[in-house]
Amino acid sequence: MRRAFALIFPLAWAVVGSAPFPAASAAPSKAAPAIKSPAAATSSVMTIEAKTTEYDGQKHTYTVTGDVRIDLEDMRVTCRQATIFATADDSRVERVLFVGDVVAKRGANVFTGEKVTLTLQNRRLMAEGGTTTRLMVPASTPSAR
Q1: Do 110 and 133 touch, CB atoms closer than 8 A?
Q2: Strand (E) positions, the chain?
Q3: Measured between alpha carbons, how far is 16 from 86 in angstroms, rounded to an integer?
Q4: Does residue 73 lie within any of the structural domains?
Q5: Of 80, 144, 75, whose CA–CA distance to 110 is shortest?
Q6: Fewer CB within 10 A of the end CB, N or C, for the chain?
Q7: How many domains does the chain fold into?
Q8: Which of 93, 87, 100, 92 shows the shortest CA–CA distance to 127?
Q9: What is the DSSP letter of 51?
Q10: For residue 13, is it within any domain?
Q11: 3: number of Cβ within 10 Å
């Protein structure tokens, strides 16, 4: 059975709206757990679906496994497992580690790897292990001579 929940965190993500991706280096839901931002206007919802979810209060991590799908703004990531790292006071998400057949899609752009780390503060994706990237780029026009 797949379970879904949502995390709410301060949005360091909105400014990537015009970029193809952040900078890159090669079950029914019950009362959903949430990490709440102090300022809702600067927050975004991360929706997570997976077969299992575990929260570690000492490490401030959520680990989701099995057919994982995470939606954040206009980006969708699928993988076998994801670990979401929150700050010590659980006020915001710092990074997400995706593992196993990771596919991150934003529009027509696709970023894949066996292990992908999303750091929210600097909007950076870093893929490792058999990475591929497909970006939509403007068509070039012949220059006038």
Answers
A1: yes
A2: 3-10, 23-25, 43-50, 52-56, 61-72, 75-86, 93-106, 109-119, 124-128, 132-134
A3: 21
A4: yes
A5: 75
A6: C
A7: 1
A8: 100
A9: S
A10: yes
A11: 17
The whole model's pTM is what? 0.69
Domain-located, residue 49:
yes
Q: What is the span of the domain harbouring residue 15?
A: 3-134
Task: Report the distance separating Cα 119 and Cα 125, nearest Å.
Answer: 7
Task: Report which of 111, 99, 23 is spatially closest to residue 68, judged by C-alpha positions.
Answer: 99
Alpha-carbon distance of 13 to 87, in angstroms, equals 17
Cβ neighbors of 103 (< 8 A, separation 6 or more) are 77, 78, 79, 110, 111, 112
**C-alpha distances in Å from residue 131, one per residue of 26, 38, 112, 123, 126:** 7, 36, 5, 18, 10
- Residues 56-101 pLDDT 10s: 999 999 999 999 999 988 899 999 999 999 999 988 899 999 999 9
DSSP state of 11: -
**Residue 85 token pair:** 């790292």
Domain at 111, CATH number:
2.60.450.10
CA–CA gap between residue 30 and residue 38 (Å, rounded): 23
